Each structure stands twice: as C-alpha cells, then as structure tokens.
Amino acid sequence: MTSTKAPTTQSRIQRTGDAIVRFILRSPLHPLLSKRLLIITVSGRKTGREYANPVGYAEHEGHLLIGTAANWRNNLIPDVPVRILLRGTNIQAAHEVITDEPRAATLYREILTQNPTHGRFAKIHLNPDGTVNLPSLRAALSQGTAVVRLNPLVAEG
C-alpha cells in the first residue's frame, strides 16, 4: 500500500541537500566533498529503479565503511556488486552488511574516528579510551543501523 501523505519538510530538505551533494560529487568540484562522501547506487528490489545515495565513508584496511540506518541498504543483493562514485571515479564494489555487535564495534571505531560528525547523527559514541560505547552501539543496531563494508573491485571505463 502506498502512502498518500505529503512529504515532510525534513524529507524535502534532505532530498534537496542530497541532490546538491550528488551534483557536486559528479562535477569537477568533487574534491570539495569526496574525501568524506561517495555516491552508492543501488537498484530497488521491487521496482528496479536506481537510487543514487550520497553517503559518508571511512577507509579501513582497503575497504570503505559506511555506517547507516537508511533503507537503501535493504536493496543490496548478496553477491551482486554495487556501483559507487569514489573521488570522481565510477567503481564496482562487493559489499557486506554487518549487524553483529562485535564486528560492528570494531568497524564503528574506524568510522567514528575518521568522521566524528556521523556519531552525532547515529547516536553512537566513543568512550574516552577510544573504544565504541557499546550501549549506544547496541541501541543503534537494534533500531536498524548497520555497517556496510565495500570492497572496491575495478574502475569502470
């Protein structure tokens, strides 16, 4: 059943902001944002429609880490690479969605260290010793947050 509710102001603001970020990341101006943001493109499981989502990322051991509670991750199909736009280059990437607490804690430490702003939005915090605050992580995971770990494959020609 499709909702007929009018979009909220927040969703309009979010959509407008995302459109501006996508425009910049696809332009020669991408260095302004591409050290922290990339575009991940997923296809809707039911509609097949492509969705290009600007997301923050962190780098760790050759992978790209995205902490997210957004619905786009539900469209990731196991063993089917996604397309990302990373620093102005289109790349295919394998993906893994991580929701178990021990692995998420290790990876969220990297995400929050490289992008502290994400923690304020995700409501996940680091302890003074630099470890992830497990109660805040546990609460976020229980509300649908996950880590999407991308393994870049090859640049598209």
Can you walk me through this structure?
By secondary structure, this protein is α+β, with helices and mostly antiparallel strands. The protein has a single domain (9-155), classed as Roll (Pnp Oxidase, Chain A), CATH 2.30.110.10. The chain is 30% helix and 31% strand. The chain has helices at residues 9-25, 101-114, 116-122, 134-142, and strands at residues 37-43, 50-56, 58-60, 63-68, 82-86, 89-98, 146-155. A 7-stranded antiparallel beta sheet has the order 2-1-5-6-7-4-3. β3 (58-60) and β4 form a beta hairpin. α2 (101-114) crosses α3 (116-122) and α2 packs across α4. The longest helix is centred in the N-terminal third of the chain and has 17 residues, at 9-25. The chain is globular and about 40 Å long. 25% of the residues are buried. The model is unreliable at 1-7 (pLDDT under 50).
Question: Can you identify the CATH class?
Answer: Mainly Beta
Class from secondary-structure proportions: alpha+beta
Average of the residue pLDDT scores: 89
Number of strands: 7
Strand order of the largest sheet: 2-1-5-6-7-4-3
Domain count, please report it: 1
Order of helices and strands: HEEEEEEHHHE
Number of helices, where a helix is a run of at least 4 consecutive DSSP H or I residues: 4
Poorly predicted runs are: 1-7
CATH topology: Pnp Oxidase, Chain A
Which sheet architecture does the biggest sheet show?
7 strands, antiparallel
Instruction: Kindly report the name of the CATH homologous superfamily.
Output: Electron Transport, Fmn-binding Protein, Chain A
Helix content: 25-40%
CATH architecture: Roll
| Radius of gyration, taken over Cα atoms and rounded to an integer in Å | 16 Å
Range of strand content: 25-35%
Shape: globular
Distance between the termini: 40 Å
